[in-house]
Amino acid sequence: PILYGYFRSSCSWRVRIALALKGISYDLVPVNLVKDGGQQFSAEFKAVNPMLQVPALKIDGITLSQSLAIIHYLEDTRPNPRLLPQDPKKRAQVRMIADHIASGIQPLQNIKVLKQMGEKKTEWAQNCIASGFRALEQILQHTARHYCVGDEVSMADLCLVPQVANAERFKVDMGPYPTITRINKALLELEAFQVSHPSRQPDTPAELRA
């Protein structure tokens, strides 16, 4: 498999965690979203993903974009360890939380949107994340035990950790979100979350390396 990604992209990080958990080795093609005006806009990358976004994964003779679609494919073809519970209610809760983050929070504070916000970008990102986290904290109080849904790592957790990292980068006060904070801390103790961390990628700048 070949993963096109960027060390700091939270969507790329979700996929890196899934690949690590499932023990899938891959080659990385770094796509720097900032350098040269954004390498995602190159003709070469447009041929890989016309949406000009990372991640993209070449695997099994196909090219997939959109992090959750990639994770669903990995789950369908390489089901161990599973990232979606077998119980239909828990499975729906995992998808709900993953979508809450992947559709309701992350796109509102990604690079493309923040460029449009100019000087207000930090305030905008903080407000978008805080609004989403207020709802998420409430949801997790009903679904969480050790992790987002029960005691097994799921696709929801793969979305949570990168989003908390974004919150910390934009200096969001995490005080009002004790459940999110607790789960994030527990997940960061797991090897798959550590090896996939933005501070430990081949394209991580020296000053940001762990």
From TrEMBL:
GO cellular component: mitochondrion
UniProt keyword terms in alphabetical order: Cytoplasm, Isomerase, Phenylalanine catabolism, Transferase, Tyrosine catabolism
Molecular function GO terms recorded: glutathione transferase activity; maleylacetoacetate isomerase activity
Cofactor(s) required, per the database record: glutathione
Reactions this protein catalyses: 4-maleylacetoacetate = 4-fumarylacetoacetate; RX + glutathione = an S-substituted glutathione + a halide anion + H(+)
PROSITE patterns per record: GST_CTER (PS50405), GST_NTER (PS50404)
InterPro entries: Glutathione-S-Trfase_C-like, Glutathione-S-Trfase_C_sf, Glutathione_S-Trfase, Glutathione_S-Trfase_N, GST_C, GST_Zeta, GST_Zeta_C, GST_Zeta_N
GST N-terminal domain ranges (all copies): 1-82
Domain GST C-terminal intervals: 87-206
CDD domains referenced in this protein's UniProt entry, alphabetically: GST_C_Zeta (cd03191), GST_N_Zeta (cd03042)
Pathway membership, UniProt: Amino-acid degradation; L-phenylalanine degradation; acetoacetate and fumarate from L-phenylalanine: step 5/6
Matches recorded under SUPFAM superfamilies: GST C-terminal domain-like, Thioredoxin-like
The keyword 4Fe-4S is assigned to this record: no
EC number: 2.5.1.18, 5.2.1.2
Cellular compartments annotated: Cytoplasm
One record GO biological process: L-tyrosine catabolic process
UniProt similarity note: Belongs to the GST superfamily. Zeta family.
NCBIfam families: maiA
Protein name (Swiss-Prot/TrEMBL): Maleylacetoacetate isomerase
Originating organism: Anhinga rufa (African darter)
